[in-house]
Design a protein that fits this description.
The chain is an alpha/beta fold and 469 residues long. The protein folds into 3 domains: 43 residues; 258 residues, P-loop containing nucleotide triphosphate hydrolases (Rossmann fold, 3-Layer(aba) Sandwich), CATH 3.40.50; 108 residues, P-loop containing nucleotide triphosphate hydrolases (Rossmann fold). The chain is globular, with a radius of gyration of 33 Å.
């Protein structure tokens, strides 16, 4: 009312012209009476009681408690995971990296040339790649696993400093790009840091990696078992197709790093043999293939038992919408994406491709002719892909009858037979391998000179994965 009166007074002064009278007097009187009445009404209404001093103390205490809880809340948490484990556990030690002076000295134009030469694209960080193994800052016992290599691969050079800086990571790279050591060596350093800080203790596991197939899981574990043996990190591979008993006994005895397929991991978790409460480092390898094989529900269930402030790494050969959604659920929103090559599905430009359209009944004879041309030495490695499980033994018998040394891997043989066939092929004692898409997915086999598609795959993705070895 007072403001209205003042406004009325000001307005009268401006609009009064040169008259000596005050035409706003009546308006002021009306406002004054109204204000007086308003005060009388306000006086009749009981004002709100002042809160007692004890209530003030309770409110302040409650606010302080909420502030403390907010301070203890992990700053970044994945959507899928156990939030209570994250809140109740000690803070995870993620920052393990100190930039080497030579890396810090890299100029912008040098980085641009390096990324162009190595076909590296990075989204979300200014962390520079390492060019030499010693620039990682990892100790000699961990770098022992790199002794047979001259320099880091593109995926390793960029991923190592990002991972050891504590970031979640999405890596898009083809099979055979060095992904296992890209996530494996930082995992060893991560495990050691958690033990030293008392974040984890006891039997573990403290790190977990999932892969779509038994063969790929075994391949990853083989690398990590050797690397871990130099720094007191035990690695166990768990997969289906074999009895659970030995795997359960090993888990109960204690391991630091578990690698496995989602189905068997979920079984062991549900039976209480594999406790994931202390896992602080999670890897999803060949994520696109795990989705293709229908493992998403299993992965979600497994990850929901891992603390949601973990460090999560996801690797995939492609970047379709389904994988993007998976990344949004399982990784922190600030995850960094590293692509080596193209994130779009494409066959390697370095591979010569020949397509022949023939009568299906003539495939057997044509296969024998191709082997005569491309396998004269009978020593070079060749993979022959078939679409159906039943085709694999048929082609194997055809070739064996003609005197060719070969082996087949498919879903209808035991895990022991599959492992023996792959190892013999890698060693060169059996230079011809017949395989279905599922059995061979993710296998990193060096020096494969020729891939023959005896029967064409159902999808373009499978074709690209077949020939990109």
């Amino acid at each position: 009312a007072a403001e209205a009166a003042a406004a009325a007074k000001d307005g009268a002064g401006i609009g009064g012209g040169g008259s000596g009278k005050r035409p706003a007097d009546k308006a002021e009187l009306a406002v004054s009476k109204k204000a007086k009445k308003s005060k009388q009404v306000e006086a009749a209404v009981e004002p709100p009681a002042e809160p007692p001093a004890s209530s003030d103390k309770k409110a302040k205490k409650k606010a302080a408690k909420a502030a403390a809880a907010a301070a203890d809340e992990p700053s970044e948490m994945a959507e899928v995971g156990d939030a209570e484990l994250a809140r109740s556990g000690k803070a995870i030690v993620k920052q393990l990296y100190k930039e080497h002076a030579d890396v810090a000295a890299l100029r912008g134009d040098e980085l641009e040339a390096l990324y162009s030469q190595r076909c590296i694209t990075v989204e979300g960080t200014g962390i520079k790649p390492v060019l030499k193994f010693e620039q990682t800052g990892l100790p000699a016992n961990m770098l022992h696993a790199t002794r047979d290599f001259q320099e880091p691969s593109p995926i390793q050079s960029q991923c190592w400093p990002i991972i050891m800086s504590g970031h979640d990571l999405i890596g898009i790279a083809a099979t055979g790009s060095g992904k296992t050591l890209a996530f494996g060596l930082p995992a060893l350093a991560h495990i050691q840091a958690q033990r030293d800080a008392g974040v984890v203790s006891g039997k573990g596991p403290f790190a977990l990696a999932m892969a779509p197939t038994r063969e790929l899981a075994m391949q990853i574990a083989q690398v990590l078992v050797e690397a871990g043996s130099k720094c007191n990190v035990r690695c166990l591979c768990v997969y289906g197709g074999v009895p659970k008993r030995d795997q359960m006994d090993a888990l109960r005895a204690g391991v630091e790093f578990v690698v496995g397929t989602p189905g068997r991991l979920e079984d062991l978790m549900n039976e209480g043999a594999c406790q994931l409460r202390q896992v602080t480092y999670l890897v999803l390898d060949e994520a696109d293939r795990m989705l293709d094989l229908g493992f998403e529900p299993h992965i979600r269930n497994i990850c929901s038992h891992v603390r949601c402030d973990r460090q999560t790494l996801m690797f995939s050969a492609t970047w379709p919408t389904a994988v993007q959604k998976l990344a949004a659920n399982f990784l922190c929103s600030s995850a960094i994406k590293v692509t080596v090559g193209s994130q779009d599905l494409a066959a390697s430009h370095s591979i010569s491709q020949v397509v022949e359209v023939i009568d299906p009944r003539a495939r057997g004879d044509r296969l024998l002719q191709l082997l005569q041309t491309h396998h004269k030495s009978r020593k070079n490695r060749i993979i022959i892909f078939v679409l159906y499980k039943k085709e694999a033994p048929q082609v194997e018998q055809l070739l064996q009858r003609r005197g060719w040394s070969c082996a087949a891997i498919h879903g209808d043989i035991s895990q022991g037979q599959r492992t023996a066939a792959v190892e013999s092929f890698k060693a060169g004692t059996i230079p011809l391998l017949i395989a279905t898409d599922v059995a061979a997915r993710g296998l990193d086999i060096p020096d494969v000179e020729v891939v023959i598609n005896y029967s064409f795959p159902l999808t373009t993705e499978d074709y690209v994965h077949r020939i990109g070895r």
